[in-house]
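Notes on consecutive records. When two proteins share a document, each keeps its own sequence and its own C-alpha cell line. Never mix them. Below: protein one.
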Amino acid sequence: MHIKKNDLVLVLAGKDRGKTGTVVEVFPKSGKVKVKDVNVITKHVKAKRQGQKSGIFKVEAPIDASNVKCVEQKS
C-alpha cells in the first residue's frame, strides 16, 4: 500500500471529491484508509451498560485507498 499514517492525501472520487486531509488509520488487508474530516457518517449508538453514553455521533468511515492520492509524505 502506498499510503501511510499521517500522510496528506487528496480525495479523487466520491461525495468528498477535492477535499484534502491527513490519514488517521490504514487498513492494508481491506485496502482502505480513514481520512480526517472526510467521509463523515452519523452513527446511532445505544448504551450497552449503565453509565455509558448513547446518542448520535459523527464518525469518519474508511474509504478505498484507490480513491485517494498522496499529496505530501510525512515519514
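Protein two starts on the next line and is unrelated to protein one.
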Amino acid sequence: MAANPTQDVLIVGGGIIGLSLAQELALQKCRVAVLERGQMGQEASSAGAGILAPRAEMQEAGPLAQLLLAGRKIYPEFVSEVSGRSGVRIDFSISGLLWVALDLEQLAELDRKKQQQTELGLAVQTLSRDETLRIESGLNPELLSALYFPEEGYVDNRELVRGVELSCLQLGVRLVPECEVLAVKAEGNKVTGVETNSGFFASDRVVIAAGSWSGQLVTGPRSSLPVKPARGQMVAVKGPEPGLRHVIYGSLGYLVPRGDGRVLLGSTVEWVGYDKRVTLEGLQEITASAVSLAPALRASTFIECWAGLRPFCEDGLPVLGAGDLDGLYIATGHFRNGLLLAPITAKLMADLIVAGHVPKILEPFLPGRFHSQPSQIENVQAKKKQGRNPASL
C-alpha cells in the first residue's frame, strides 16, 4: 500500500463540524485531510432538521448561549460563501419561529422562558391566539398563545453538507471516506498521526471531530472523551397547502418547513447506544406531537423516516480545544446544535490550531474541564515562554 502524504492537519470525522473546519483551515492555506468511517456528512449532519434557533434552544444564560448567538450571527455569510464556492443552491431561511402553548402548563412554561430572556436583555414577543393564527393559519385553533422569535430559522442540512463537501474539494482538501481511524499515534507526548484501516496517515496535528463516535477513540493518557450517542428519529411529509411559513416548536416536538413544500417532524431523544433503528413507538410520538400542533398534517403525504445519533457530552456542553497530547485537538459533543455551531466552531478551532489563540468564548468548552490539569491557556503561555508557537504549522 502506498504511503499516505503527510498533512498539516488530519481531521477525524467528515460531518458538518469536520468539513467546516477543513474548509476554514484550507482557506488559511493548510494541507488538510478528512478521514470518515462512512460517507461524508451522512450521520447526524444529514439526519437533523437544520433548525437554527439559539434563542428557542437557550436553557439559561451562560457560555453555551453566548456561543449559540455568536454562531447565528455569522451564519448568513457562511451559507452564502459555501453556496458561491460550491455552486449548490442551499435552502436557507430566517423564517422566524413560533413556540406554541396548547394548555395551561405549556403557557406557564412560555411565561418562564419569556421572563428568562427578558432578564438577559433579549426582546421576546408574545402573541395571542388570534395573532398567532393570523401569521400561521394551519396551527391548532385551540392554542392559547405563542412566543415569536423573528430571527430564528432553518437551513436544509443535506444541501449544506453537500455544499461544504464540494467547497472542501475546490480548496484542495483530501476527503477519505470509508476510512476508520483505529488509533491516534504519538511519540512521547507528541502526536505523529493516526492508524486506520487504510494505513497510517502522518501529521503532527490531529482533530477528533467524529461526533457520537468520538468517545470511542483514546485521545490521550488520561481518558477517553465522555461523549455518547443520543438517537433522534425524524419524519418527512409533504404538507397540505398552504404550507407552514415558520419553524414551529411545541412541548413535545417541532415542525420545520422546507422551500419545496416538505415539512420535517421531530424528534425523539433516546439513550439506546449506537442503535439507529426507526421504531413504531418513536414515529407515533412524533406524529402525535405534529398533529397536535398542526391538525391539517393528518392529510399530509408520508415521504420518509430516519434516525440519527447526536453526540452528547456528559455536562451538556461541546468539547472544543486541545487534548492531552501535543498536537491533538477536540471538536465534538455539539448534541442538537452541530449545524448551528459549525461555522463558529470552525473559526475558533482554526484560530487555535493555526495561531495558538484561545479566545475567551472558547474557555468553558476546553477538554481539560474533565480532569485536573493545567488549563489550555496555561499550556499555551508556557510554550510561548519557551520561545515557540505551540500551534505553528
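For the record: The chain is about 30% helix and 25% strand.
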